[in-house]
Amino acid sequence: MSLTKVYSFETNDKVSQALGEFIAQASSESIARNGRFTIAFSGGSLPATACKYLRNNQNIDFSKWYVFFADERCVKLDSHDSNFRLVREELLDYLVQQNRSIPADQVMVINDDLIHEPAKVADDYLVKMQSVFAEANKIRFPEFDLILLGIGPDGHTCSLFPKHPLLEVKNDWVASIDDSPKEPPQRITLTLPVVNHARRVAFVVTGAGKKSTVKAILDEKNTHMPASLVAPIKGDSYWFLDDAAAKGLTEN
Ligand code: 6PG
């Protein structure tokens, strides 16, 4: 039976510290078990919150990391809108400076030559996922060690938006979207079944502006919000909140 654990902290900085420790622990456990750590990052404020302390943690063996994106905008990799760019600036560049880089071929970015054809971006990304989850022909879905997710005010997570047909995807690992209600409209995203096959899913949500969304998901189980549909089959889900986002939760 999978668990949902909700943690809240006084400040955003304390969320960063606790999340950094959590990711480090997940990394150690995964490397001890499988010799590697597979992680997917979301965009928005998450990379800054997740990486503030993580990047200086000397106990992490980043050479064993395989980095993916829970969703990515179909833009050039150096674009202001790129989720990869956020992770590069918040983590990868720091690791280069410290001489403990994640090998470039273990950072799974979109092919940005294809950005005008999101379906091709998704096809290419699937091949990259299959290359890492090499047992792909034997397993139904990849099992990420950790997927880090944000939520939008509408309860979207990854690029899975309320009432969108992508919520019905049952078989695909990665999907493209041409009509995202949030700019930019063209994106790729991990699908709900992939998220729900992860060993750990961690939501990271800060700020008073999200408190009614957090309450709608955690207390009211509002299934119109895509984040409410995240329920790992074998893994656990974790919520890292600041007190402003957690305010009003009954079970906190
Ligand atoms: C995107 C973002 C987006 C983000 C949430 C939460 O590609 O548009 O990844 O889905 O994760 O909107 O963002 P904040 O944490 O910045 O509020």
UniProtKB/TrEMBL annotation:
<comment type="function">
    <text>Hydrolysis of 6-phosphogluconolactone to 6-phosphogluconate.</text>
</comment>
<dbReference type="InterPro" id="IPR039104">
    <property type="entry name" value="6PGL"/>
</dbReference>
<comment type="pathway">
    <text>Carbohydrate degradation; pentose phosphate pathway; D-ribulose 5-phosphate from D-glucose 6-phosphate (oxidative stage): step 2/3.</text>
</comment>
<dbReference type="GO" id="GO:0006098">
    <property type="term" value="P:pentose-phosphate shunt"/>
</dbReference>
<dbReference type="GO" id="GO:0017057">
    <property type="term" value="F:6-phosphogluconolactonase activity"/>
</dbReference>
<comment type="similarity">
    <text>Belongs to the glucosamine/galactosamine-6-phosphate isomerase family. 6-phosphogluconolactonase subfamily.</text>
</comment>
<feature type="domain" description="Glucosamine/galactosamine-6-phosphate isomerase">
    <location>
        <begin position="11"/>
        <end position="239"/>
    </location>
</feature>
<dbReference type="GO" id="GO:0005975">
    <property type="term" value="P:carbohydrate metabolic process"/>
</dbReference>
<dbReference type="InterPro" id="IPR006148">
    <property type="entry name" value="Glc/Gal-6P_isomerase"/>
</dbReference>
<dbReference type="InterPro" id="IPR005900">
    <property type="entry name" value="6-phosphogluconolactonase_DevB"/>
</dbReference>
<dbReference type="InterPro" id="IPR037171">
    <property type="entry name" value="NagB/RpiA_transferase-like"/>
</dbReference>
<dbReference type="Pfam" id="PF01182">
    <property type="entry name" value="Glucosamine_iso"/>
</dbReference>
<protein>
    <recommendedName>
        <fullName>6-phosphogluconolactonase</fullName>
        <ecNumber>3.1.1.31</ecNumber>
    </recommendedName>
</protein>
<keyword id="KW-0378">Hydrolase</keyword>
